[in-house]
Every structure is written in structure tokens, then in C-alpha cells.
Amino acid sequence: MTHETQPNEAAAKVGTDGVADIPIAHNERVLSGLLGQTVFAACVLFTAMHLYALNVSPIETWTFRIIHVAGGLAVGFAITAAMTLDRSPGEVRINRVEWFALIPAVAAIGYAVFCTLYAWYMRETGTPPANWLVVHLSWSLAGATAIALVSSWIWRSSSRSIHWADAILIIASILVAAYLVLVLNRWRMAAGTPFAGQTEFMIAAVGVALIMELTRRVAGLALILITGVFLIYAFAGPYLPGLLEHRGYSFSRFFTYLYTDNGILGPTTAVSSTYIILFITFAAFLQASRVGDYFINFAFAAAGRARGGPAKVAVFASGLMGMINGTSAGNVVATGSLTIPLMKKVGYHPRSAGGIEAAASTGGQIVPPIMGAGAFIMAEITGIPYTEIAIAALIPAGLYFLSIYMMVDLEARRDGMLGMSKDELPVFRKMVKQAYLFLPIVILIGTLFMGYSVIRAGTLAMISAAVVSWFTPHWMGPRALLNALSLGARMAIPLIAVCACAGIIVGVISLTGVGARFASMLLGIADTSHLMALFFAMCISILLGMGMPTTAAYAVAASVVAPGLQQIGIPPLVAHFFVFYYAVLSAITPPVALAGYAAAAIANTDPLKTALTSFKFGLAAFIVPFMFFYSPALLMEGTWMQILRVVVTAGMGIYLLAAAVQGWFLNGAANLVQRVLLLAAALSMIAGGWMTDLVGLGIGGLVFLWQSASLKVKHKASV
Question: What residue stretches are annotated with the TRAP C4-dicarboxylate transport system permease DctM subunit domain (predicted)?
Fold first, then answer.
């Protein structure tokens, strides 16, 4: 094992205790034989199709998004079904009751395939498909899908082949797209209007059901439950009072509306079909080329010997990987499997180790230039140029990671921790000689600010990740390139499903107008107090985001909360950054803190206590969004002197906040009263005004003098 591209020696030592170099697609199970090759080929083709369409031959927007969703569903069902197989030798065993489901389901899906092909043939020959044909198509497709969905919850395959129910779901996903793209030529004109008929309703309903089922498999029940609440609200609205009331909609109009660019095919799918698939594949190339390992090893070489070294490594490495990864919990598993055991080894309590990793991994999604795909959704929704969003995110991201770093350092000083020994770490001098492995990130940032499109910049960065691997022992040949494309699809499928499911919620909000009514309510609260309106918006954003991946959480919060903030006079950039931050922070906000729970599983400690600890380490981030409102200079809006002053005073406030939380200020412990004073000083410094800055400095100076006097008294007493 070499220090250049393999995990460092410390990682190898930890690996003997059960923690190895975990790939980003940490839940991958190796598939072999014909099934494995088929799934592998489907993943490669799915990713390659997107890269080709994005860079070489663009496809009409609606068609591309429909194909993207259908392909994601088909590949997703294939992967999730294959990963649950019992691969022990044996024959297919179908019990007697299961046959009563299998036979009608297979017959129905077969008839649906026949109707689709026949209707397509008629369309190609210039003859409109007969009405009976499309009616039979919709009914047979809906029937087969319903039987397959229920059967997939009850029975599992006992052989090496995918269960028949999952195979039907794969075919149904393809047929939905085939009907919308090949058979029906008026979807844009009819969908979401009174002209939509029963056939269109049933096809759209099948699509919605398939999206929700795949989301349940890859993201759990939290997002499904929230989506279910919105779907119920869409039909219960006429019977609800006050703010929630609306006139109600027919099934055909409602479900077809969801399958338009106001819902499933809207901004969330626009981003997942372009930026997310591209940058997730970029992350897969970093993984396959071992450039991602270099990032972690470089962090170990640079900070491993410092106080609490592994924790500081976790801060840097998780920030680097998290901005690309797209999910907080996924980043925790990708980097935390290495950093958490090492943090425990140098003296961090398991809860602290898990909390640090969860907070750092979550913060990676606010780090430009990629920001876990959140910046792309923001650019899509607001129309603000992507580069402007990335620049605006620099200072807040820096303050967030400065806060975690200070928390980590002060805890290490308070508990007398040391770093790792020299022989456990890679040689920094040799790591510096391989600094060219940072080239993909440098190319990405450089091309973006040279004016290249995001798609072109991401593609060039991805290609450069393969090229730089040729200068290492792990050069990427044709097989490695195909593996990276396959890995990209496996990593992207969960986010594709989540974005499509979030599109359902966005569609309900758009159709019912509940977002506009919520905005008017915020406006009423703001008449009393802007601070109260912001606090209320914060609570709603966190509540909407609990249990949801960041992309979905932000998409929903941007539809509900951001318009209200704009109505009370907050600029669009500030309003969307406000809700984006809290959508991200929902991953470390108890009681439903997915990143904290993932870290607790690795640290082998209590999940809720770990979530509370991660909340403590990320505390500064809960204050920063309020600073956007009171100090827009934090988002690079203002003169250079204003920006510099706010950065300096906010940085000092961050240190005071960390000292108050950790109970350690400068060179000594802080008692309870001193910690309260430090907290007051921190909030004053972070507020951003001249008067509050002076008050904060004054209180901080008072605590310093008090502490110095106490230390002198203790020194004399000891002498």
C-alpha cells in the first residue's frame, strides 16, 4: 500500500478493527453473472446517455426530463431489486397464492406493451391511435403496476433473478415515458388543464406511484409521509378552514398537472437531469481515480499531528467531499468510516466524534462551487447566475467551518488531547509533490469563472480526474471508466428519485396556491416584527427538511417560505440563502437528524445524543442566516471595507461562541457566568453593527481580564 493514493497507514491500522476504505456508494453489493452485467450495462448507458445529451446532442427539454425520470426509475428498480436478492443456489419458488397475482400482472403488462407498440406504429404511419387502444393501454398499465407494487411489498425472490414484480415495475416505468413521448403528442397542451382525460390521469398516476415507491426504497419513509400529506391536502382542501382552504381539483387535472414543468418535470428534475447527474459522476470519477483518497490523505498529512488531529481532518475532508456528494448522511458514511474511529482513538468521546463528522459533512453542502447541487437548484428557481451564488456562499461557508474548527480545537485543549504520531501519517512533503491531483477542482473553479457553462466546466473537470489518474498507480483505463460511469448512476439514482418526489410537493404547492397564502401570513407577522417572521420561516424550513435529503428539502422550502420572505422586502438572494441554509441544517437538527444518526451508527453510540452533539457543533450555522438579513455584506453585497469589517467581527464572534459552548476561553476554563457573558459577546459581534461590535469587544475584554485575574490568584496560591 503506497501513501500516494491508497488510504494512509493510520487508516490501514483502523481497517484491521473493521473499518476499511469505504467507497462513496457505500451500500453497493457486488453483482455477478448475467444479472450483474445487465445492471452494470444499464447504469453505464444511463450515465453515458446524459453526458452525451448534455455535451454533444441536446434533446428537447420535456422529452429529456421524461426520459431522465423514466430511466432513473427503471435503473433504480433494477438496482434496488438486485441488491435485495438472496444469492444462495436454488430454484424459483412461487407459492400458490402468488400465482394469482403473477398471472394477471404479467398478462396486463404484456397487453400494455402490445398497446403501446401498436399505438406508436399508428402514430408513425400518420394515423391517430384509436381511442379504445389508449384506454386499454392505460387500464392494463395501471392494473399491472398496482398488482406489482403490492406484490413487491409481500413477496421476495428466492432465486438469483429479479423478482417478477420488480421486473414489471421496470417495464411500467419505461411504458409511462413511451406513452408520453411516442404515443401522445399533446401532453403539453392537455396536462394540468380541464382537457386532460381519464387516460392521461391514469398514466400520470402510475408515474407518481412509481416515483413514490422508488423514493421509499432509496430514501426511506420520511419524504413519502410528507408527500402523502401534501397529496391528501390537495383533495381535502375544500373542507379545510381559513389559510388552508382551496377549491379542489379533479383527479385528471391534478395528476396530469403534477407531471408538468410545474411539478415533477420542473426545477428539481431540471437540476437532477443536468447538474446532479454530471457532478455525481464527477464524484464517481474522483472515487475511481483515487483522487478522493488523496484529498483525505492530504488533510491527514496537513492536520493529523495537531491537537485532536483526526477531528480537524474530518472538518477539511468532509468539507471537500461533501460539496460534491449531495447528501449529508452519505458523506458521513463515506468519510466518517475513516475519521470517526481515529477521533475516538485520540480521545474524543464517541458522541463528539460522531457529532463532529455529522456537522462537517452537513456543512460540505454549503461549500462552493458545487454546494451539493443546492446552488444549481437556487440558480434554476431564482434566475440568479450560478457564479454569483457561488461567490456569495464563500464567507458563510468559511464562518461555518471556522466555527467547527474552533469547537474541535477548544475541546481538544480542554480535554488535553494530542494529535497522531508522525509514523501514523502520510509524509506531507510527498503529499505536496502530488498536488497536481487537486487539478480537477482547480479546473472546475477556473473554467466556471472564465465564463464556461456549468455543464462544460463539470465535464472538463471530470475528464481531468481521469487524466490525472494516469500519473498515479491507479490510472483509469477503459474498464475503470465504465466502472466510474456505473458508479455515477448508482450514486445518482437516490437523488433523482428524491428530486422527482420533491417535484410532486412543489406541484401541489403551485396548484393549490398555499405558498402564496403562507407568504401573506409571513407578511402579516413582519408588520409586527421582522425578527419574528424570520424565526417563523426558520422553523418551517427546518420542519419541512427533517428526514429529507437537502435537494428535496430546499426545493420544498423555496416554494413555501422563500416567496414570503421576498414579499416582506428581503432580496431574492438573501431569502433563498436563508431557506437553503436551514434546509441543509435540518440534517443535524434533532429529533430527526439523518446525518447525526448515520454518524452514531459508525461511532456506536446513542443516536439522539449524537444528534444533539452535532447540533452543538453546528450551532453557529443557525445564527449565520440571520446575519444575511442584518449584514448583506456577508453575501458579498457591499464595499470591500464593509465586507472586510463584517468578516473580521463575525470571525471573532464565532470564536467567542465556540468558547461559550465548550467552556474554554484563551488559556483557561470558563465558569458558567463567564460562558453566559461570552455568549452575549458572541451574539453582539455576529450581529454586524458598529455599536454591537463594540459591545461584544467590551464584554470579551471583561471576561479576559476576569480570567487573567483568576489565573494569577491560582498561580500565587499554588506557589
Answer: 207-634
Q: What is the residue-wise DSSP string for 134-161? A: HHHHHHHHHHHHHHHHHHHHH----SSS
H-type alpha helices, 428-549: 428-433, 439-449, 454-469, 478-512, 514-528, 530-545
CA distance 95 to 78: 23
Distances in Å between the Cα of 421 and the Cα atoms of 176, 234, 310, 342, 610 are: 59, 60, 11, 12, 28
493's CB contacts (< 8 A; 6+ apart) are: 72, 75, 76, 79, 214, 218
Residue 245 to residue 255: CA distance in whole angstroms: 19
Domain boundary among 218, 252, 269: 269
pLDDT of 169 over the 90 cut: yes
- 3-state class of 297 per DSSP? helix
Classify residue 178: in a domain, yes or no. Answer: yes
10 Å CB burial of residue 717 (0-12, 13-18, 19+) is: exposed
First to last CA, the chain: 53
CA dist 497 and 264 (Å) reads 10
Distance between CA atoms of residues 647 and 624, nearest Å = 12
DSSP one-letter string for 547-607: TS-HHHHHHHHHHHTHHHHHHTT--HHHHHHHHHHHHHHGGGSTTS-HHHHHHHHHHTS-H
CA triplet 563, 567, 572: central angle to 5 degrees? Answer: 60
Residue 102 within a domain: yes
For 526-583, write each residue's pLDDT tens digit. Answer: 777 778 888 888 888 888 777 777 777 888 888 888 888 888 888 888 889 899 988 8
In the numeric block, the cell 452525451 is attached to 52
Q: Is the pTM of this model over 0.85?
A: no
Closest CA to 122 of 143, 114, 201, 196: 114
Are the C-beta atoms of 559 and 382 separated by less than 8 Å? no
Average predicted confidence (pLDDT) for the chain: 82
* Sequential DSSP letters for 349-365: -HHHHHHHHHHHHHHGG
Closest to 448 in 3D by CA, of 295, 440, 438: 440
Structural domain harbouring 657: 642-713
Would the CA dihedral through 604, 608, 612, 617 be positive or negative? Answer: positive
Q: Is the pLDDT of residue 659 over 80?
A: yes
Q: How many domains does the chain have?
A: 2
Is 42 a domain residue?
Answer: yes
- Cα-flanking dihedrals φ and ψ of residue 664, to 5°? -140, 120
Q: Which residue type sits at 219?
A: A
Look at residue 599 and tell me whether its pLDDT is greater than 80: yes
Closest CA to 285 of 467, 495, 27: 467
Please enumerate in sequence order all residues whose Cβ is within 8 A of that of 701, keeping only pairs 6 or more positions apart, or say none. none
Chosen domain end from 269, 293, 319: 269
Residues 425-454: tens digit of each pLDDT = 788 788 888 888 888 888 988 888 888 888
Run of H or E residues at 304? none
Q: Is residue 40 part of a domain?
A: yes
Q: Are 237 and 244 in contact (CB under 8 A)?
A: yes
Q: For residues 268 and 215, what is the distance between their CA atoms, to the nearest angstrom?
A: 14
